[in-house]
Amino acid sequence: MSTLAVVSAGLGQPSATRLLADRLAAATSAALGGDAAVEKIELRDHAHAMVDATLTGFPSGTFRAAVETVANADGLIAVTPIYSASYSGLFKSFFDVLERDVLDGKPVLLGATGGTERHSLAIDFAMRPLFAYLRAAVVPTAVYAASEDWGGGAGRLADRVTRAAGELAALMDARPAPAKADPYDDPVPFEDLLAGG
Predict the structure, then answer these.
(1) Can you give the pTM of this predicted structure?
(2) Which residues contact 161 (CB under 8 A, 6 or more apart)?
(3) Which residues pair with 169 in a beta bridge?
(4) Angle at 151 (CA atoms; ends 122, 165), nearest 5 degrees
(5) Which of 31, 78, 93, 122 makes the best surface tag, with the fewest CB within 10 Å?
């Protein structure tokens, strides 16, 4: 069974960001044949812990569990509101505290929300470079939802969600399972065992 982590950086409750994240997760799960464990992470619930982790270098408590969920997932959906033509500080803080190489080659679907369509390019000039730096495998279709997409443009939004989810599911299916290290591949020499080493 595939594991899908869904990171949402919405500040309100409810938020359009969480709503988009939920739609992307449902569509991806359906594209995977309904055979996916979906783990949702609301960054607003971990805001203080993220600041602590930034200062100390060590995530703790429930925030550590959220970081491990993303690290161990087979795929990731990352959704942020757009403020001042870029992702939110909360969103960036989360990806700043991840260990190096945690997203290396991981299939990722990007999503964003904002008040107007003018901010849709933030996905390409802000989010994609961040995930390219983290060496994630970002799907070609990203989904931006402006306020008007929740009304009359809902059909177009649904089409984009379906297409992006299909791309993420295909990438997750094509990714080889990580090789598990065999503890017997590199045995400790008998002399070292006798010497207490």
Answers:
(1) 0.86
(2) 20, 23, 24, 27, 143
(3) none
(4) 55
(5) 93
